[in-house]
Amino acid sequence: MARAGLTTERVVAAAADLADTVGFEHITIAALARGFGVKDASLYAHVKGLTELSTRVAILSGLDLADRIADALAGRAGRDALLAFGHAYRAFALEHPGRYAATQLELDPSALDEHPGLRRNLTCTYALLQGYGLAEPHLTDAGRVLRSTFHGFVTLELAGGFRHRRDVEETWASALEALHVMLTNWPTGEAR
Question: What does the pLDDT look like over 137-176, one tens digit per residue?
Fold first, then answer.
């Protein structure tokens, strides 16, 4: 029997909070149960195990990130959209490092079918890039470069990889401007 007050949603939300504190790769059923003041077995009425819990945290986190990016992009195009997208992406990663790590979990395709909002990041990315006049196959290429840049930057930043005295905010601003120049001048010609 499930303990009163515990729901799958509360368990997953607590796991996401725990991921932000200890790291996504360090969440455990035992630590989560301790946080609720219950035995491990009480949580199995809500999640089948750590794999399901991790997947649910990844879905929750992916939907949250997608909503933040979509909200930031609303009514913007070009450079303004790029800056809004980048700032929303980075803010999410810095505010929620465990949840951000969860967004990198490879999900079963059925999860994408069950939670179509997870595709929103891709939709937002393509809308941003179409604002630069890009079409396939350049959309895919530019999307990969954008994601690699954002992910690489925040991953290094979270790991303490920017120890130079140069202000990280200045570097981030320069990176966004460089991306804008790159996207504005994307090589779409066949001569490569």
Answer: 999 999 999 999 999 999 999 999 998 899 999 999 999 9
Long-range contacts formed by 177-186: CB under 8 A, 24+ apart: 179/82, 179/86, 179/145, 179/146, 179/149, 180/78, 180/79, 180/82, 180/83, 182/145, 183/82, 183/129, 183/132, 183/134, 183/142, 184/132, 186/132, 186/134, 186/138, 186/142
> How many helices (H) and strands (E) in the chain?
10, 0
Q: Could you give the angle at which helices 78-95 and 120-130 cross, rounded to 10 degrees?
A: 150
pTM above 0.90, yes or no: yes
H or E element: which one contains 125?
helix 120-130
**Cα gap 56→17, rounded to integer Å:** 13
Give the CA count within 13 Å in the CB-facing half-sphere of 1: 3
**What's 126's DSSP letter?**
H
pLDDT digits (tens, 9 = 90+) for 69-103: 999 999 999 999 999 999 999 999 999 999 999 99
| Euclidean distance between CA atoms 177 and 146, whole angstroms | 12
79 contacts 3 by C-beta, under 8 angstroms: no
